[in-house]
Amino acid sequence: MQALRWHGRGDLRLEETPRPTADEPDQVVIEVEACGICGTDVHEYVHGPQIIRSTAHPLTGARPPITLGHEFAGRVSAVGVAVDDLAVGQLVAVDPCLRCGRCAACQRGDYHICARGGSIGLASDGGLAAFVAVPRVNVIPVPVGVPAEWAAVAEPLAVGLHAARRAGISAGDTVLITGAGPIGIASLLGALSLGAGAVFVSEPSAPRAELARSVGATEVFDPSSADVRREVFLRSGRNGPDRTIEATGRPDAFELGLTALRRGGRMSVAGITDSSLNLPLRQLVLYEREVVGSLGYNRDIERVLQLMATSRLDPSPFVRTVRPLTEALDAFEALAAGPADDLKTLLTPTREP
Q1: Residue 278, Cβ density class (10 Å: 0-12 exposed, 13-18 middle, ≥19 buried)
Q2: DSSP letter for each residue of 83-126
Q3: Which of 76, 96, 151, 306 could make an SS bond with 120 (beta carbons 3.0 to 4.6 A apart)?
Q4: CB–CB of 304/161 below 8 Å?
Q5: Residue 40 appears among annotated catalytic residues
Q6: Which residue spans of the chain are classified as CATH 3.40.50.720?
Q7: Distance between terminal CA atoms of the chain?
Q8: Nearest CA to 68 among 138, 129, 141?
Q9: How far apart are CA 87 and CA 185, in angstroms?
Q10: Backbone dihedral region for residue 263 (phi beyond 0: left; psi -120 to 50: alpha; all else: beta)
Q11: Which CATH number fits domain 159-293: 3.40.50.720, 3.40.50.1450, 3.30.870.10, 3.40.50.11810?
């Protein structure tokens, strides 16, 4: 079968690899229908190895070359002898978080921050291939009425929903989101699905600002020309937003998200870079604001799929660009050159005879 394999920095190869089989009792082989390219994948291509390990992964034993892809959905092709609750041909999505199931984090239900964890597509072969084998615990049946391309983008949308949940958003809350890239738009959709009353967005890019408006932002401000903190303060009863979500990883955006918060508000930080922060502690302590990190998702993919199935979350902004897997190298080159106009590029494998 064809698979997109990461061999090293700047070295991606679309090559023939053996089709996986369900050798382990709990394995599920999935025939991939669509797989998204994540910013993490592009980062590994341009700057890696970062998350990919050059030595054997402590949980999976995998080492490069490795098949990329952790945002995917497809149909069950085969199952191990211990799997009796999935049917061949059934449409499924995948939670790519690999977990040991034994560490303190796993034992308390926080499998997404497992001490030995990794991700399918980074710590084991992923979904940028015609077929992929994954553990049954990572497989999520897709509700009726949700198509495969929607199910494939449940993973990035779950990142946004998790960020919104970590911020503690509830019905009627006023929210500020810094950034309208994929994480920011996913967070916006997540905030709206939780019943936020008003969602303001800080975004300097005009196309991304327009996208934020089109999917339900109350108002979008350009931080290069507007005092976003003041504008949101005036529009929130002169209190500031109840919740903020930082979706860029930029120190200036972090400071905006923190200082804009109302007294006693909470900020969720989903953006990440190697940057350091010059934290204004007085802004944190004197107003008793909270700041929490937000990593990936914890059963949020299931939540997103249910929101899609009940028409409470529209994933269409994430499924506008679909290309065949044979164009994977061109797609990565384009994404490495700069942010795309569309939020997500999906790749679809060639059907094998």
Answers
A1: exposed
A2: --S--TT-EEEE--EE--S-SHHHHTT-GGG-TT-EEBTTTB--
A3: 96
A4: yes
A5: yes
A6: 159-293
A7: 10
A8: 129
A9: 34
A10: beta
A11: 3.40.50.720
CA–CA gap between residue 293 and residue 25 (Å, rounded): 36
For residue 83, the tally of other CB atoms under 10 A from its CB is: 18
Residues 6+ apart with CB under 8 A from 15: 2, 3, 5
Furthest C-alpha separation in the chain: 65
Cα–Cα distance for residue pair 246/68, rounded to 1 Å: 27
Tally of CB atoms within 10 A around 78 = 17
Comparing CA positions, the residue from 182, 135, 170 lying closest to residue 26 is 135
Token pair in block for residue 122: 């980074």
Q: Give the pLDDT of the chain (353 residues) as one tens digit per residue.
A: 999 999 999 999 999 999 999 999 999 999 999 999 999 999 999 999 999 999 999 999 999 999 999 999 999 999 999 999 999 999 999 999 999 999 999 999 999 999 999 999 999 999 999 999 999 999 999 999 999 999 999 999 999 999 999 999 999 999 999 999 999 999 999 999 999 999 999 999 999 999 999 999 999 999 999 999 999 999 999 999 999 999 999 999 999 999 999 999 999 999 998 889 888 899 999 999 999 999 999 999 999 999 999 999 999 999 999 999 999 999 999 999 987 778 999 999 976 55
Classified as helix, coil or strand, 341 is: coil
Among the listed residues 40, 67, 244, 248, the single catalytic one is 40
Per-residue tokens: 64: 């490069």
Q: Where in the chain is the domain with CATH 3.90.180.10?
A: 2-153+319-348
- Report the C-alpha gap between 285 and 261 in whole angstroms: 12
Tell me which of 7, 43, 310, 326 is the catalytic residue. Answer: 43
